[in-house]
Amino acid sequence: MSHANAALTPRARLKVAQLVVDQGVPIREVAARFQCSWPTVKRWASRYAAGQPPTDRSSRPHTSPAKTPAATTKRIVSLRLRKRIGPVQLAALTGVAPSTEHRVLRRCHISRLSYLDRATGDPVRSYEHPRPGAMIHVDVKKLGNIPDGGGWRFVGRAQGIRNRARTKGKPKNRHHNPKMGYAFVHSVIDDHSRVAYAEIHDDETAATAVTVLRRSVIWFADRGVTVERVLSDNGAAYVSHLWRDTCAELRIKHSRTRPRRPQTNGKIERFHRTLADGWGYARCYVSEAERRAALSAWLHTYNHHRPHTAIGNKPPITRLINLPGQYN
């Protein structure tokens, strides 16, 4: 690739070569016209005459005698994947300098432990579908409801217990009380754009999951996105006949992750972590109703304003097309 101050671009090189070879203009005259040296003109003319393109050649040497042997590289990668150790520890096992170990790990794209799956040690393979709606991810995030007065995370465990005890309407079975039980956040996220849709319910039954799916499909359709496929885990709601029949009715292909492999649904798992940090436990809510009311505003910020590192530090909504008013 030509540097910023290059006198000749590939197009200009071609013109220089044609003047010398095809039209017979003297090399020195062409060099003066294009304000470059005569060896430069001669070089591009010679390559043009030989049928070679007027582009830069690679500066990589033809041979690298000091390159780390393939067997050593293979052993370094194998130890990294199995033991999850760093360059210094690898150097002690392989007899190669730590700087060489690090260079090999970088070349193999495993220089950071975050690039490896925690459970298996295999390199993390990221993927992204080519267009909005080609796949959506669905899952449920379970959060404990906040008692009136605030939860223990902000007011302390002792005060949190007192607030929970004083919350009105507490029945004997806390799991059936909207205030003292759990909030189930049913989330839907588009694989390509990372645009998210979410609703809060008091259960995670198949009937509720199906209702959320139907509304999310309509919500995405209003933004010009046609849902083609949905990926879920193996939760009871997603293996039910009701879910299967609904997907067939909506003409959506349903896929499930491999058992005990949440990494396959990693985009929505990561979204739930962001949701918990940015909304669920972001501040001291004095009641569950206050937290639930704040979800809509947080989702708008996430979709329309919050930069997303996986899509070039732009908000997810920028990856959707044909939005109302987008080209006004």
Tell me what the structure shows:
The chain has twelve helices and five strands. It has three domains: 10-49; 70-115; 136-145 and 181-319, Nucleotidyltransferase, domain 5. The two termini are 38 Å apart. Helix content is 41%, strand content 10%. The protein has a five-stranded mixed sheet, sandwiched between helices. The longest helix is centred in the C-terminal third of the chain and has 17 residues, at 288-304. It is elongated, with a radius of gyration of 30 Å.
Give me some keywords for this one:
328 residues, alpha/beta, 3 domains, 5-stranded mixed beta sheet, 12 helices
In short, what is this structure?
This protein is of the alpha/beta class and 328 residues long. The chain has 3 domains: 40 residues; 46 residues; 149 residues, Ribonuclease H-like superfamily/Ribonuclease H (Nucleotidyltransferase, domain 5, 2-Layer Sandwich). Helix content is 41%, strand content 10%.
